[in-house]
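pinging the channel bc i need a second pair of eyes. not urgent but kinda urgent?? the chain im working w is below, pasted from the shared doc
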Amino acid sequence: YARAIYSVNDRYVLNVSMRRDGSSRFSPAQRWGWFPAASAAWIISQEKFLKDVKAINMLKVRAGWGVTGQQDGIGDYAYIGNYFEGGPTAQYAFGGQYYTVFRPAGFDANLKWETTTSYNIGLDFGLLKDRISGSIDVYKKLTSDLLATVAVPAGTNFTNQILTNVGGMENKGIEANLTYRPVITNDLLIELSGTFAYNVNEIKIKS
């Protein structure tokens, strides 16, 4: 994991990072994944043309992009054939005796990381010494190689359902929150907050 932050005059901030994650749940060919991220912010309220505007005490525009990976829900060594001891109802009769057998489990040799690429643009603001403050975010997330347990045709694997990478999902929307503080004293603080969110999800299955 590596990360770097660069700031210029307390007005411009750039943040970049890189993750390299490995998991033995995937085959050696698919084991490692690179997950970069970058974000930038412009603190407009620090600019000279807003320094004298007393009504605005904080105004910031920011944008970000990043890729994350996940492996949740995958059993150990799900990319290779494994054999497990069968139950009492799956014994094999031979010579008047019943013997416990080992059964193969389904697997997908091409399992790989599920990845999500995120984009967002946001605005943070504080007005009248933070009596009014809030933020607005517009975002989009694209998930590819979605991990899910799906049915498979009979005879193509050792089971009728396997965990595999089946498609993707698109998630996009907008979120906003606003806070109003009508009373701010040493003894009393009254704060009113509201949140708005609109989100659209679309699952995309590859053929």
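so The radius of gyration is 27 Å. and Residues 71 and 113 are 6 Å apart (CA to CA). — does that match what u expected or am i reading it wrong
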